[in-house]
Amino acid sequence: METDITKLESRIQYTFRNRELIYEALSHSSYANEKKKQRSSNERLEFLGDSVLSVVVSQQLFEHYPDLPEGELTRIRAALVCEKSLHRFALQIGLGEFLLLGKGEEHTGGRERPSILADAFEAVIAAVYLDGGLEAARTHILHFIPETIPENHSLLFGDYKTALQEVIQKNPEERVEYLLISESGPDHNKTFVVEVCLNSNVIGKGTGKSKKDAEQMAAREALTLMGYEV
Questions:
Q1: Can you tell me whether residue 92 is helix, strand or coil?
Q2: pLDDT 10s digits, 141-197
Q3: Sign of CA dihedral 209, 214, 217, 221
Q4: Which end of the chain is flanked by fewer CB atoms within 10 Å, N or C?
């Protein structure tokens, strides 16, 4: 475990003085339950990390976007600290490989589960905060926050379908539809091709290992053709 923690420290560019904090941040409740009194779960740290994250992101937005009204700041903050964004941040540092999970959770894919990864990401924030203070936590968090915020906030975490929908909604009479064009390959390794249509006109095409992924790629192509940076 020592080697693993050193590897994680390298990825987050922070070295812990008290390594018990990072062990606790990585301990899912299923693991803590198996260890009984030997290990606390990361739930309390997650609670604290959520608050530290909110403060740091709020200050960053407040200082860097002095002309934005409160409602817009709130919406951007919500996009940056939602489970989808935190899951994306956790994937950037490969947090899943360091998690301490109970046997059941391990066998049912807990290491890749978005909610578990998002919670652990917040717990790590709290561990950094308790170990090194607010400035250390701020430095850690700002590694993941983009320097410029796109006008379409769904692009913050690669949700191209929602981003496209938000663009189209500016014209209420317009209608978007996703059509499955083909699927090929064996059941365990299928490839799907989807077209996205605007009022029956094809505006994008995408390929993926699931219909959902293919739809996202079709929406991405449509946004690119519309001139959005994705």
A1: helix
A2: 999 988 777 666 656 656 788 888 888 888 878 889 999 999 999 888 889 999 999
A3: positive
A4: N
Whole-prediction pTM value?
A: 0.71
Instruction: Tokens 């983009």: give the residue.
Output: 146
How far apart are alpha carbons 119 and 35 in whole angstroms? 20
Q: Rounded CA gap, 9 and 2, in Å?
A: 11
Q: How far apart are CA 37 and CA 58, in angstroms?
A: 37
Q: Are 168 and 198 in contact (CB under 8 A)?
A: yes
Which tokens belong to 189?
A: 């390794």
Contact 206, 178 (CB under 8 A): no
Residue 43 corresponds to which tokens in the numbers above?
A: 């739930």
Tokens 């817009």 identify what position?
A: 72
94 — alpha (psi -120 to 50), left (phi > 0) or beta? left
Q: Hey, which residues are catalytic here?
A: 50, 122
Task: State the Cα–Cα distance between residues 210 and 216, nearest whole angstrom.
Answer: 10
d(CA 171, CA 21): 51
Q: List beta partners, residue 44.
A: none
Q: Count other C-beta atoms under 10 Å from residue 153's C-beta.
A: 19
Tokens representing 6 are 């050193």
Answer for the pair 221, 214: CB distance below 8 angstroms, yes or no: no
Report d(CA 141, CA 143) in Å as an integer. 5
